[in-house]
Amino acid sequence: MIAPDFSASPLPSLMSLSGRVSVVTGGAGGIGLAIAKRFAEAGSSVVIADLQQSQVDEAAQMLSHTYGVPALGVTTDVRVEQEVIALLDRTVSALGRLDAFVNNAGIYPVRPALEMTADEWDRVHSLNLRGVFIACREAARRMIAGGRGGVILNIASVSGFRGRPGMSAYVASKHGVVGLTKSLAAEWGSEGIRVLGIAPPLVSTPGMAQWQKSERSQTSSGTGPGSVEKLVTANLPLGRIGVPDDIARVALFCASDLSALMTGSTLAVDAGLMCY
Ligand SMILES: NC(=O)c1ccc[n+]([C@@H]2O[C@H](COP(=O)([O-])OP(=O)(O)OC[C@H]3O[C@@H](n4cnc5c(N)ncnc54)[C@H](O)[C@@H]3O)[C@@H](O)[C@H]2O)c1
């Protein structure tokens, strides 16, 4: 399948996801929920995959009520292969197709390498890298069966490009996501599947609020208590950390036909952090 040329398409249709079906993992909160909202606003039906039934139902109801699109909540632990397969099966049986899959669910615990057990390493990688791989594979299988291609979007991190004390498992997992994105893009381009990544810096989310409270996060950032955000902001050319919608707008660009000739890249949405 050769990438279509949209030169003659008007801007509103290029930005639209109308008639399409998208899945967002970790979609009940933080960056995932912001992505789900922008996708729904652009007309996509949305499936929210997250850990708890009440969370996914609430998010799905909010999306269909606010944006008037079909939305479905599916309880899914991305670490469990059979649950990811069931998520994709349910998506296609309930909504008829799959156009975009966002691998957003991720954890970012701090643990100095000298204290890290093999089990803790595996816990991070089972979600952040192994889970992402399985979801990519299952999404691609359904996109290929549908014959229309699609977009897989992996939420990486600036930690996919840089090292960071106290976060070796996380950093390694996100470097893995950046590499996986390139490899799968090369493997599935001929099927019309684009695979892209986004690398945020610090984004204010419920998970990040908890992370900042932990004493260990100060060590990882080389700061004292309460000053992680201050230190990061001081190094950002654009002067502030991210809010979830900063990431969601770029996710919409990636999932839409605006980015039709892009695949394999991981876009830094980082307020300029990577300039240094
Ligand atoms: N917030 C940041 O500063 C930041 C920076 C760079 C990258 N990221 C990446 O962005 C993504 C989202 O981060 P966030 O800050 O919005 O996180 P968050 O903790 O605020 O939200 C994550 C969501 O994922 C869900 N989740 C957790 N484990 C899951 C599992 N096993 N299966 C399914 N769902 C699960 C949680 O219930 C939650 O709703 C992560 O991949 C993270 O690594 C975040």
Strand content: 5-15%
Bound molecules: nicotinamide-adenine-dinucleotide
Low-pLDDT runs: none
**Helix amount:** 40-55%
The figure for the number of domains is 1
Calculate the mean pLDDT score and round it.
95
Q: Which radius of gyration do the C-alpha atoms yield?
A: 18 Å
CATH architecture: 3-Layer(aba) Sandwich
Secondary structure category: alpha/beta
Number of strands: 7
What is the CA–CA distance across the termini?
Answer: 39 Å
Write out the CATH superfamily name.
Answer: NAD(P)-binding Rossmann-like Domain
- How would you sum up the major sheet? 7 strands, parallel
Q: What is the string of helix and strand elements?
A: HEHEHEHEHEHEHHHHE
Number of discrete helical segments: 10
- Look at the structure and give the CATH class: Alpha Beta
Key structural traits:
single chain, 276 residues, alpha/beta, Rossmann fold, seven-stranded parallel β-sheet, binds nicotinamide-adenine-dinucleotide
